[in-house]
Specification:
alpha/beta; Arc Repressor Mutant, subunit A; D-Maltodextrin-Binding Protein, domain 2; 6-stranded mixed beta sheet; two-stranded antiparallel ribbon; globular; transcription regulation; transcription; WH-like_DNA-bd_sf; WH_DNA-bd_sf; LysR family transcriptional regulator
Length: 313
């Protein structure tokens, strides 16, 4: 009989590529991961891995088994959801991942609603960049998360995960007052022209490896230039403070503008760009029906500010 825990390790190896990466993600030692995968091969009765030096890759049988593992793990999530629904009331920990602007502007109101409706549920929030959410969900470090994608950085399909749309928000070019185009509060400015007007200025981006960083770089590249990055900052209030101080220009989302101190009237001009950031609720495949996940999804939908666009708009 194949062991589900070992199937999970095989799936993670297929996603992460190395035994060391699997071990680090799941808090095992590399030797323990290798040992468990060897046991899985004996259970399967045929080779699942090909070892070349320090690296391993899945055999055709291994890749085929990963497909079955995805289906098995999804059914286990559904079974857990069914059992949770049969119990009286929600209780215990619910591990929630969210990126900083959602953590500040959306999540607190959702937690108030959860506490009122399900007082025995214990939500635990961890700020997590969307680029790291898939591994955290599959590894069991998170139960549900808010993730986002940009027009220039679409989210790739993630095996073992499902998402539901939550809201969309506009993007703005933030520049020092008087340093470029007049602010425009309606969509329609030529995005390339707006960005190119600041091509020779220093830029402020998020830290490399984040979706926000990739979004700014790719938007500028689409406009025909590479940004000259001076500062790398993840918190949008700090980004806008640096813009106001004349330290550069930046692309910021609507929530980063609406909920930040010191925007227009404080040395920052905002030009609306014809691009969007879309936020989704993410969870493991089969877990959407889990009462705790569904309760959070309902609460977070009610917490979305009315000025944000509804899904699909």
């Amino acid at each position: 009989m194949l062991d589900v825990r070992r199937l999970r390790l095989l799936r993670e190896l297929a996603r992460r590529g190395t035994i060391a990466a699997v071990a680090e993600a799941l808090s095992f030692s590399p030797s323990a991961v290798s040992q468990q995968l060897s046991v899985l091969e004996r259970e399967a009765g045929l080779p699942l891995l090909e070892r070349t030096g320090r690296r391993v890759r899945l055999t055709p049988a291994g890749r085929h088994l990963v497909g079955h593992a995805e289906a098995v793990l999804e059914r286990l999530e559904q079974a857990d959801a069914d059992l949770a629904e049969a119990r009286q009331g929600l209780a215990g920990a619910l591990r929630i991942g969210a990126f900083p602007t959602a953590t500040r502007a959306i999540v607190p109101a959702a937690l108030v609603t959860l506490a009122r409706r399900h007082p025995r549920l214990e939500p635990m929030v961890c700020e997590t960049d969307p680029a790291a959410v898939a591994h955290a969900l599959r590894g069991g470090d998170l139960d549900v998360a808010l993730v986002h994608e940009y027009d220039f950085v679409p989210a790739p399909p993630e095996p073992g995960l499902e998402t539901e749309p939550l809201y969309s928000e506009s993007m703005y070019l933030a520049s020092p007052a008087g340093a470029g185009p007049d602010p425009a509060d309606t969509p329609g400015p030529d995005q390339g022209a707006v960005l190119r007007a600041h091509r020779d200025r220093p830029w402020i981006t998020a830290t490399p490896g984040t979706l926000c960083h990739a979004m700014t770089v790719r938007a500028c590249q689409a406009a025909g230039f590479g940004p000259r990055v001076r500062h790398q900052v993840d918190e949008f209030p700090t980004v806008l403070a640096l813009v106001a101080a004349g330290q550069g220009v930046a692309v910021v989302p609507q929530l980063g503008v609406d909920r930040s101190a010191g925007c227009e009237g404080s040395g920052v001009s905002l030009t609306r760009l014809p691009m969007q950031r879309r936020t989704k609720i993410a969870f493991r495949s089969g877990a959407g029906g889990h009462p705790a996940v569904a309760a959070f999804a309902a609460a977070v939908r009610e917490a979305v500010p009315p000025e944000l666009a509804s899904p699909g708009r």
